[in-house]
Amino acid sequence: MQKFDVAPEHVVQDEAGLRALFPPTHDLAAKKCLSALDRHAQDFIRRSPFLCLGTQDMDGRADVSPRGDPAGFVQILDERTLAIPDRPGNNRLDSLANIIANPTVGLLFLVPGYDETLRVNGQASLVTEPALLERMSVQERLPRLAIVVQVQEVFLHCAKAFRRSHLWDPEHLQDRREMPSLAKIILDQTTGAPEDTEEMQRIDEDLEVEYRKSMY
C-alpha cells in the first residue's frame, strides 16, 4: 500500500481555522454540559453494561480501552464520583499506567439499543479500598483495584453516529467468520500461525476455555 501524504496547505493548523469550517454550535449544545451527574445521567449509567475509557500518558500518547460487565457495574458513589472495577485482562496495564502519569480521563457509556451515548470527563485515581472492592465482587471474586473518577463534565451525545453506523440494527450485523479468529490474527502478527487447521482450531478452543476461566 502506497504511503499517504497530505499537502501542508490542507492541514488545519489552529482552532480559528477549525471553527471557520463549521457554523456556530447550537446554544443548547453548549448549555447541556453539566458538572455533576443528574438523575438522567445516573439512570443511563445504571443501564450501561459497556464503556470506553480514554487515557493519555504524559507525552500525549492516547489509548482507549473497553470495559464491560453486567449493566450497573459502574458504581455511582455520589453525584460527582464514579468507580469502575478493573477486571482481569492481559496485564499490559496501558490505561492504569496512563492514569498514574496523567489522571485526566474520558468515558463513553453505551446502552444496547440506545442510539444516544453518555460522555463523562474527569480526573481518575486507582483505589484499593477493601469496602469499595467488595461492592464490585462477581462470583466471589474481587477486582484488584477500582478506577475512581471525579466527574468534571457530563453530557448526553446525540444519536447521529449510531444512526449512520446502524450499530444495533440486526440487518447490519456482519458474519464474524469472514475474518480469522483473534488467536490466528495475533499469531499472524507475531510468531506466525500454524498451517495445520486442526492445530489452529485447538488453539481457538483453548482461548475460549481461558475466557471462561479468567473472566473474573
From TrEMBL:
InterPro entries assigned to the protein according to its UniProt record, in alphabetical order: Pyridox_Oxase_FMN-dep, Pyridox_Oxase_N, Split_barrel_FMN-bd
What region holds the Pyridoxamine 5'-phosphate oxidase N-terminal domain?
38-158
Family matches, as Pfam families: PNPOx_N
PANTHER family in UniProt: FAD-BINDING, PUTATIVE (AFU_ORTHOLOGUE AFUA_6G07600)-RELATED
Q: Which NCBIfam families match?
A: PPOX_FMN_DR2398
The name under which this protein is listed is: Pyridoxamine 5'-phosphate oxidase family protein
Q: Can you name the source organism? A: Algicella marina
